[in-house]
């Protein structure tokens, strides 16, 4: 590990959480350079919904390279891009009756968030944005303004975008409807809140601790946005791409956001990020928001294959089935250790265990790592053990990983 300590910035995080050198990966497994096999319940923070080195995705990329397919094409029209757009339309947008235009925004999720915030402000001619407590949208100077956790902030970073954080669903417990709270703030000119261009949210907060917004809350929020002429932006970077059981996380609420940010698993493991916007919002002048790595053609090839999982309902069914296993097993673990686990929550195949005892969730993740299972933490105090296995994980591997958690907690409590 010496070269990492010598050369890589102190900002490195996962190097510390998983202090080993990984070498190969396949499906839901990773191997380190000593040949130890780990089960991956983290999936690159939701980037590997189709598993590591998914054979159909890898094969398509190999063929593309062997045939001298274009890899880097700026925003030129290419065959790889055409096939991706057509497949995205046929398999995702058309069956859901969604009319969106697609803007390729750069390689990483934050680029899509930045684009959405910029476009919303430009279209609405308003500078404020409303975001929510525990929301996570990225750490660059624009996206940082809408990320909740102040751990990521330094007052001397300088100018951040104008943004206010409002309480997410459940923030004050089940009895307070925080959409009413927001409505009151927006209606009352003594609140100090400027009418925003947009509201941005995750329908299930990933980094913020697997907080699931209720269907009613999402519908009421969409209604409030209509009432006040505010754009609704759903950040589906982490819990989109089938994670919650539907391709888009907002489908369960029957709402149609004005914009959607999509990244992580859309690229099947390759870097790809995009903004979906209602066609009338596409008010960019040609070249007004551009950049070098917007739309990598190898990523389009991978993404097109990844989208083949959406030609039928098999993956949706699999997520429902395996999601139920996760729910049952995690609830059984919580019942076994009621003094330790205060809540089990999630949807589809994204779940979290809330561990109020300070630092103990970290102990669990460490113990799991010692037992060859990779899991991560979430929540403002890292108090949630978070589960994001590949959607394609074998049932046996899923159960094996869940058994490691159970054993890790039992061993730590002995
Ligand atoms: N939005 C959400 C909901 C995310 O989970 C993340 C990444 N964890 C981002 C934005 C930022 O994406 P990226 O790290 O790819 O820039």
TrEMBL record:
Broad EC category: transferase
InterPro entries in the cross-refs: Aminotrans_3 (IPR005814), Aminotrans_3_PPA_site (IPR049704), Dat (IPR004637), Ectoine_EctB (IPR012773), PyrdxlP-dep_Trfase (IPR015424), PyrdxlP-dep_Trfase_major (IPR015421), PyrdxlP-dep_Trfase_small (IPR015422)
Alphabetical UniProt keywords: Aminotransferase, Pyridoxal phosphate, Transferase
EC identifiers of the protein: 2.6.1.76
One of the GO BP terms on file: ectoine biosynthetic process
UniProt xrefs under PROSITE patterns: AA_TRANSFER_CLASS_3
Cofactor: pyridoxal 5'-phosphate
Pfam families on file: Aminotran_3
Position of the signal peptide: none
GO molecular function: diaminobutyrate-2-oxoglutarate transaminase activity; diaminobutyrate-pyruvate transaminase activity; pyridoxal phosphate binding
Pathway terms, separated by semicolons: Amine and polyamine biosynthesis; ectoine biosynthesis; L-ectoine from L-aspartate 4-semialdehyde: step 1/3
NCBIfam families, sorted: dat (TIGR00709), ectoine_ectB (TIGR02407), PRK09264.1 (NF006733)
Family: Belongs to the class-III pyridoxal-phosphate-dependent aminotransferase family.
Protein name: Diaminobutyrate--2-oxoglutarate transaminase
């Amino acid at each position: 590990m010496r070269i990492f300590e010598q050369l890589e910035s102190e900002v490195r995080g996962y190097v510390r959480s998983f202090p080993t050198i990984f070498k190969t990966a396949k499906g839901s497994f990773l191997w380190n350079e000593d040949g130890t096999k780990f089960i991956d319940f983290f999936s690159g923070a939701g980037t590997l919904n189709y598993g590591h080195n998914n054979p159909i995705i890898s094969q398509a990329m190999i063929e593309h390279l062997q045939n001298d397919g274009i890899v880097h094409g700026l925003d030129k029209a290419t065959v790889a891009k055409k096939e991706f757009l057509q497949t995205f339309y046929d398999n995702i947008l058309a069956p859901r009756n969604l009319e969106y235009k697609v803007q390729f925004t750069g390689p990483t999720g934050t680029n899509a968030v930045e684009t959405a915030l910029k476009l919303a402000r430009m279209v609405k001619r308003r500078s404020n944005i409303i975001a929510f407590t525990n929301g996570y949208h990225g750490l660059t100077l624009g996206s940082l303004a809408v990320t909740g956790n102040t751990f990521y902030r330094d007052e001397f970073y300088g100018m951040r975008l104008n943004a206010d954080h409002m309480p997410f669903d459940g923030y004050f417990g089940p009895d307070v409807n925080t959409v009413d709270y927001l409505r009151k703030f927006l209606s009352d000119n003594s609140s100090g809140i400027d009418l925003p261009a947009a509201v941005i949210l995750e329908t299930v907060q990933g980094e913020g601790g697997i907080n699931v917004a209720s269907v009613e809350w999402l519908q009421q929020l969409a209604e409030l946005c209509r009432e006040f002429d505010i754009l609704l932006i759903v950040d589906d970077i982490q819990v989109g791409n089938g994670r919650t059981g539907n391709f888009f996380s907002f489908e369960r609420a029957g709402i149609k956001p004005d914009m959607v940010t999509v990244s992580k698993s859309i690229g099947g493991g390759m870097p790809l990020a995009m903004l979906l916007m209602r066609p009338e919002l596409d008010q960019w002048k040609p070249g007004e928001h551009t950049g070098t790595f917007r739309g990598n053609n190898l990523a389009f090839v991978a993404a097109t294959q990844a989208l083949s999982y959406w030609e039928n309902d098999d993956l949706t069914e699999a997520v429902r089935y395996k999601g139920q296993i996760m729910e049952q097993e995690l609830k059984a673990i919580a019942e076994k250790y009621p003094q330790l686990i205060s809540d089990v929550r999630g949807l589809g195949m994204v779940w979290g265990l809330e561990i109020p005892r300070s630092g103990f969730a970290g102990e669990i993740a460490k113990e799991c790592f010692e037992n060859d299972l990779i899991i991560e933490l979430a929540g403002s105090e890292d108090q949630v053990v978070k589960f994001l296995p590949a959607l394609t994980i074998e049932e046996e591997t899923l159960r094996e990983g869940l058994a490691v958690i159970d054993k890790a907690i039992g061993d730590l409590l002995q």
